[in-house]
Write a structure and sequence with these properties.
- The protein is of the alpha/beta class.
- It has one domain: NAD(P)-binding Rossmann-like Domain (Rossmann fold), CATH 3.40.50.
- 46% of the residues lie in helices and 13% in strands.
- The chain is built from nine helices and six strands, in the order E-H-E-H-E-H-E-H-E-H-H-E-H-H-H.
- Strands 3-2-1-4-5-6 form a six-stranded parallel beta sheet, sandwiched between helices.
- Strand 2, helix 2 and strand 3 form a beta-alpha-beta unit.
- Helix 1 packs parallel to helix 2, helix 3 packs parallel to helix 4 and helix 4 packs parallel to helix 6.
- The relative contact order is 0.15.
Length: 246
């Protein structure tokens, strides 16, 4: 696969899945605009890409706020060009008992996990419509497919992402723009290690008996963002080692 000549925005690119996705798209030839609130982390992602011979810029911005998204798009245009690929990866994945979830916690989570991807899609559409080509890949979650105790709010936001993906895909199907989503399941990232999940204990209970790697998710994203996937839209490409079977 090649993404040569394409410009890709990857949100939540400071570490974990976002960094792996940014690196994979850059390795395949895309110029990457890496976005995150973590300035040090996102700069390191861009440094790793450029050190490997790729092209990347690091932008410190909140991808859940319209004004900061507009600033990020403008800077991406100036430094890299029109956007052809958008990967909505930025998210929060907290664990909390249902009765402890406040209205503010719920609002904040929906802002990052759902409103952000919604607004980012709106912001990149003019570039893609003008080009008659575009790839939007939303990172959802296997928690939306299976349910997840103490993550009712998180699973709900990611279920919204899946429904949004399908609906936007139908609306844009005739334009040359595809919209798909990848729900990771039990992937060994910094976020998983920081969570209350017993990684060593849970792995043997999965079909493959092991956690996935960020590179597994990145490979799925790279495929969906390619020309090879031009007849795939509205699809949920589960990457979970058999944890959930479509």
């Amino acid at each position: 696969m090649t993404h040569s000549g394409r410009v890709a925005i990857v949100t939540g690119a400071a570490r974990g899945l976002g960094r792996a996705i940014a690196q994979r798209l850059a390795r395949d030839g895309a110029a990457v605009s890496a976005w995150d609130l973590n300035e040090e982390g996102v700069r390191e992602t861009a440094r790793l890409i450029t050190a490997a011979g790729g092209q990347a810029i690091a932008l410190t911005c909140n991808s859940a706020k319209a004004d900061e998204i507009a600033r990020g798009i403008a800077e991406t245009h100036t430094k890299l060009g029109s956007v052809g690929i958008l990967v909505n990866n930025a998210a929060l994945s907290p664990f909390m008992k249902f009765q402890d979830i406040t209205e503010q916690v719920l609002d904040d989570l929906f802002a990052v996990n759902f409103k952000g991807p919604f607004l980012c899609c709106q912001a990149v559409l003019p570039d893609m419509l003008e080009a008659g080509w575009g790839r939007i890949v939303n990172i959802s979650s296997s928690s939306a497919q299976t349910g997840s105790a103490r993550q009712t709010h998180y699973a709900a936001t990611k279920a919204a992402v899946i429904g949004f993906t399908k609906s936007l895909a139908m609306e844009l199907a005739e334009t040359g723009i595809t919209v798909n989503n990848v729900p990771p399941g039990f992937v060994n990232t910094e976020g998983l290690q920081e969570s209350p999940v017993d990684v060593e204990g849970f792995a043997p209970r999965t079909p493959m008996k092991r956690a996935g790697r960020p590179e597994n998710i990145a490979a799925a994203v790279a495929f969906l963002a390619s020309d090879d996937a031009d007849y795939i839209t509205g699809h949920t490409l589960s990457v979970n080692g058999g944890r959930y079977l479509n």
